[in-house]
Amino acid sequence: MWVGTRLVASTEAYAHPEWKRRLTASRRQDTVNTLLFGPELPCQPYRVLRTPAVDAALPQQDEICAEPPSGPFIGSTLLFPGTSFATPGVPMPRFSALPPTPDTTGDFDAMGMPAGESVQHIRDIRPAAEIVAGMMAEARALVAGTLG
């Protein structure tokens, strides 16, 4: 079982508040598996939240993913926060696979915001400990046959 999307929507996750907000407002059909994102690692499948920029580019995704990034940067971010390698103001090219962190600025409608299909079950931002405790309680109930 994958729980990445749910844990992005936790209070501790180093994710931009706008990404978290969009996760809590999304449904399964608001995600798409695409090859658009990742000039850093071209043409790899990446499930992201749908945005107008994603929807407009989907018909050309095969061509776009094979080309080097072009056009104006969509934002900037900090790489390696909290380390001696921290690099502020890193420009994000169009369709960058770098997810938005609290240090990210720019056009969030143009950014890749990873999200699994289970996003439809996320409606709040909670501490990770509560999320994991709830998952464990549900698993115990399933094993005991008391949840159906």
Structure overview:
- The protein has 148 residues and is α+β, with helices and mostly antiparallel strands.
- It has a single domain (4-144), classed as TIM Barrel (Alpha-Beta Barrel), CATH 3.20.20.
- Helix content is 29%, strand content 14%.
- It contains 5 helices and 5 strands; from the N terminus they run ααββααβββα.
- The chain has a 3-stranded antiparallel sheet, with no helix packed on it. It has a two-stranded antiparallel ribbon with strand order 1-2.
- It is globular.
- The mean pLDDT is 93.
The major β-sheet equals:
3 strands, antiparallel
CATH fold naming: TIM Barrel
CATH superfamily: Aldolase class I
The gyration radius over C-alpha positions equals: 17 Å
Number of helices: 5
The overall pLDDT average reads 93
Q: What's the order of the H and E elements?
A: HHEEHHEEEH
Query: How many structurally independent domains?
Result: 1
Report the CATH C-level class.
Alpha Beta
**How many angstroms does the end-to-end distance come to?**
18 Å
Oligomer: single chain
- Backbone shape: globular
What is the strand arrangement across the widest sheet? 4-3-5
Strand content: 5-15%
Proportion of helical residues? 25-40%
Please count the beta strands (DSSP E, at least 2 residues each): 5
Going by helix content, strand content and strand pairing, the class is alpha+beta
| Poorly predicted sequence stretches spanning 5 or more consecutive residues | none
Please give the CATH architecture. Answer: Alpha-Beta Barrel
